Amino acid sequence: MKKNEFTFLKNLQGKILFGQDLKNYTWLGVGGKAEIMFFPKDEKDLSLFFKNKPADLPYFILGGGSNLLIRDGGIKGVVIKLNTPYFKQFNCKNDELTCFAGLPNANLKKILPDYELGGLEFLASIPGTIGGLVKTNAGCFSKSLSDVLLKACIMDSAGRTKEITPDEFHFSYRSSTFDKDWIILALTLKGQKSTKEEIIKTLDEQALYRKTHQVVGQKTAGSLFKNPQGHRAWELIKNAGCDTLTVGDAKLSEKHCNFMVNNGHAKAKDLETLGNQIVRRVKDKTGITLEWEVERVGLEK
Ligand SMILES: Cc1cc2nc3c(=O)[nH]c(=O)nc-3n(C[C@H](O)[C@H](O)[C@H](O)COP(=O)(O)OP(=O)(O)OC[C@H]3O[C@@H](n4cnc5c(N)ncnc54)[C@H](O)[C@@H]3O)c2cc1C
Question: Taken in order 240, 245, 247, 252, is the CA torsion positive or negative?
Fold first, then answer.
């Protein structure tokens, strides 16, 4: 690390760690090392980081690591994780819920019944954090983030905060487009008044559906590929005979073949190679190019 990089890190209040194994921060359980990891204490600390950061020092925002395939060479520069208590705050007013970016979505399982706020149950079953919902316009049970988002608060890489309206994210199916340097600080979501019993019933039904139809308790990152218009990715994978393909410990789930699984000690390289093989085979068989839903980041080893 260069001397000026070290000096500016010393002035921050949040925890700084060097050489952390990123496999401990991802659901797939793969990833090389993070050169530097920074856990900002609060918004002011994060802003100070950006105001003093050497321009050529790269950074990456890590949420819950549930949609990431981090390559075996790890991530250069600073991995920022917003998981201190400050970034897990929330505030409920009438039918609006503001959640800070580091709040785990799973916390909504308690917050929603406590505040008798319905309509947002689907988000509670998506692994990861509030900030991580934006990139892929995450959704399930026929709803997406864009259906319930009222506004967002972001920080740019100059350390300035501003409020953003949903149209500025250009949302579409499992996708959004926004400035690369925006860091989501908080989202305000619109729910609807409901009863504790109704909310718990919906949460239970959704949890049961996931348990029955999807992959639970294994190292995975959820849907591997987006559904191409008019098709289901899992059907294309199965029809191309890819559902039983393996590369090392990388395989597809027997329960749902659009879920990739690390069956033990797979490397990121194994998982990515398997995904790329599937893309090629499905393309050869159907002419359709599957698009990765899982995001691949970091350096190859
Ligand atoms: C078992 C399982 C089931 C899943 N089911 C679903 C599902 O039903 N629907 C669905 O849509 N997805 C699903 N997923 C995928 C994943 O949970 C979602 O994409 C989730 O929203 C990712 O959030 P995260 O916090 O884990 O983000 P990460 O995986 O850590 O990051 C994803 C992206 O978001 C960016 N990011 C994270 N936080 C911020 C921030 N504060 N500011 C700016 N950028 C940020 C990261 O840089 C990265 O580009 C599933 C995953 C698993 C493992």
Answer: positive
